[in-house]
Amino acid sequence: MTSRTTATSRRAKVRAARLNGVDAVEVSDDGLLLTVTFLGKAPRGLGPENVRIDGGRRVTGITAVDVSVEREEDPELDDRLYVTLDRAGDTSRYLLSLVEADPYGRPGTEPYRGFDQRYHRAHFGFHPDRPTPFDHHRDDHAEQARPDFPDTPVIDYTARDYDSVRKLLLDRLALTTPDWVERSPADLGVTLVELLAYAGDRIGYQQDAVATEAYLDTARRRVSVRRHVRLVDYPMHDGCAARAYVTVETADDHTLAPGTYRFASVDVRDLNRHDHERPGTVIGDDELADLDERGAAVEVFEPVVAADPLELRVAHNAIRLWTWGGEVRALPRGATSATLRDEWRDPETCRERRLELEPGDLLLLEEVKGARTGTPGDADPAHRQAVRLTSVTPGVDRIEDQPVLEVTWAAEDALRFPLRLTTRGGPDCLPVEDVTLARGNVVLVDHGRTLHGLRETVTVPPVPAVLAPCGPSACGCPDGFGGGGRASAPARLITSLTDKAERGVPLTADDIRDLHDVVGEPATTRAGLGLGAGQRQHDHVVPGTAPAQATALRTLLAQSAHPGIRPRFRPVLGHAPVTQAVPFPDPRTVSAGQAERIAAIPGRVRQRLVELWRSARDRDGLGGDEIAELAVVYGLKVLDRTELRRHPVRALRELLHRTDHLLAAKLRRIEILAARARAGTVLDENVVWEIEQSWGPAYAAGLHPGDPVLRGSATGALTQDPRRALPAVRLLRDTPHDEEIWEPRRDLLASGPRDRHFVGELEDDGRLALRFGDGRNGARPAPGTRLTARYRLGGGTAGNVGAEAITHLVVRLPGDHKHHDGHKHHDDHKHHYDHKHHYDREIPPVTAVRNPLPATGGTEPEPVEQVRRLAPLEARRTRLRAVTADDYAALASALPGVQRAAAEIRWTGSLQEAHVAIDAHGTGTPSGELLATVAQSLEAYRRIGHDLVVGPARLVPLDIALTVCARPGHRHGQILADLYRALGTGRLPGGRLGAFHPDALTFGEPVRLSRLVAVAAAVPGVDDVRVTRLRRLFEPDRGELADGLLRLGPLEIATCDNDPDRPENGRLSISLDLGGAR
């Protein structure tokens, strides 16, 4: 490597003066040979005594042992000297000098004769490539000779506000321009300083704001907190709208079209009673708007499913329940069915029924008379419950010749209380009927009013007009805007029009239109050019003078060549608060209902075969419609081969036995569709059509995703999770024929490039901002697109009105010209109309509107401080995977219908199995449907490598014997009855559970002798209790009685039904020592 001097000018002077010097020193790889290059020719007579090497930290005193000179014949080339050393040096810097020898023949200190006094030496290093923190080329003498410059002024980086930045700038200017001492606010320099200080203050504020919003603990904006907690899967909610059930009574059959009706709760107590009349049951939009403007407390409720018409039937106002001649006196707690009394429209023909209930309709069961007195004033308002019908079966009571309707509802809607149907009351204790009535014409509504009138539109900002760049060039890019051959077409057009205007020729309307076609109308208008109002052939250019037009064209050229930053499209809706509503129906509920109905098709086919077999047997043959029905399921070839027409009974019996074989392909398809629906996929109309074509219309009924029967239970409709709520906003493209609709989502993580989704984010001021996709996660709105926003206002706890508060039906009455927002009406709901129905346009004959149950579910937006407190721990509270046995048990226990669950993981020899035992509510044995539901739900959480086995709990029957000593004065029969009841499986007076009620015991809970004694001793009349036998039934005694404890396994539950018909479920023997008892 080479170490060279840096004074190149002096090196040239040395060569010109014919002096000699050292130009460079190179070190060999082994460090024992130095190659010295001269500034010219090497002198003669050089020896080792003329080479001096100084320096080194660990290796010093290096000497030359031999030298040799390589002389160049060419006078323009320099000679070289090769110096052999006695040893290599260390990593420090060394100095080689060519000097005169001293009297002792050793290297001296005087420069060698003929050498410049500065170039007779050179620095070098033995290890120049080794990493070192030092600079090998540093010239210590040059550093010492460097002049002292003044220190750089210290910048105060804590200066963030206006005053401190202004002082910092003035202090800096005092150093750089000491002659400028003016500090008057009118001075131009001070004005510029203050302008820069203002800009610095704004920038500092923005930096501080960004730094503040960067962390959850310091973020102040609600949107920032929402996005922070989304990273840890905490869905921050913005509130939720309340829901309620509204019943409508009508004087005549009537149908209201979708979107033309809503309901209102109006409180006029704060108004002057002399200035208004009490509003009627049916009010118009104008009257509602007037009440709202005058200060009345108005809360509007709209149907949750806006596309449903409201079909009002007189027969559904109050439906009597059939008691079968007084045999059924009450509907017990937990009932899921009832019999409704129907009537014939024409008693003579007995064909058409008055009740038009269908599966999926809502029914309200209400106690209208006191259960004990039979008077309406004593009716319990808490005994009201809404149910959604799952099946409707018409029938006839042959004894009374009375048409009836058998209706059922889901287990989730099971009655929470008993309902009396008949009682005795009055002074004479006479029978009182119709204690409980059923009501139809029920609508599910939620809080919030739709904004009508003037449309609120948002426009997507246009893309800045950018001129096409010029083509590539080997010698650089010529001026693309000067009219050269490589300029883009927009640039040439703008340049030519600019030259035209500068020559004093005004632009024409056609020139402006050409600009619109090239760079776009928004960019042209933004630059100051446009067309004035008027007919197209008489449009005039604005501005009208040529100089002003030339200036605008130069502005357009600059804006197009250097476009600004594209503005972010995040519009904010103009009204607040926007309704937040949970989507209804829940897609998971719809898909679960479809899966259940599809899985039931094979069973329904077999049941239908049995019905047809009985019908053919009784009336000797099948009808044409019945044969066509079987042809769809089995095919004509199968029917011909079985000779269905000649021998229907035998053929139907054969079809029944061979159904699995004949329909194997169809049954596999049914299993696939059912599994897809169980996984959460909502089957669309194409699948419904497939079922209809392959099985028949009867089996496809109730499978359409919009069918009301798939909307779930009435109880579940009122149970809302605010974290799943979405803003009630729809965006429509503002074109007369385009049906492009943008829909809200919680986030855009699952949205694709073509999904027209957006996210509604609640700002701190309560207004809703809309965030769109970037083209990868969610579609990006096209620049320049105009979107019309349709949304609802309302929500929160204001919608939690009490029972009987919603008493008005709001419709569009003749003569109404505006809605509640005061704007002229536009028919925004015409797209909802279904031409298959005939909708009445006159004033509806509604006589009463009420909500028998209070509205529930209204929730305010989640506070930011609460989110900060709960979000960091969300990952610990929410189980996303089942790894341990406790995970499986906890996830199964959280499912509806499951009271408790236990699990254990076993090794089978080849893999691990997770065994989950289920204890159902109210019964010790869960149904097959519940076990299938649990298995399907746990499948999503199951750990890879675990096989899942779900089954009922293992019931352990007990054998218990007690000896009880009774107190004197008590009847032994009553004592025994109370003991068996207290230690039984039923419910005690006051709602208490028996000792062995299924809900009183859990997995692995041991049976303690002390508990048995305590329960028995609490029975009135019991003086002493002794347990004489405690063991598992049919097993020997293992010391349980001596230990006072009977232990159970983790998946076992004790049972003792003491049922003579089922002795295998436990036995309880009580021996009563009469003592003084009678």
From TrEMBL:
Location of the region described as Disordered in the Swiss-Prot/TrEMBL record: 1057-1078
Domain of life: Bacteria
Protein name, per record: Baseplate assembly protein
Species annotation: Streptomyces ruber
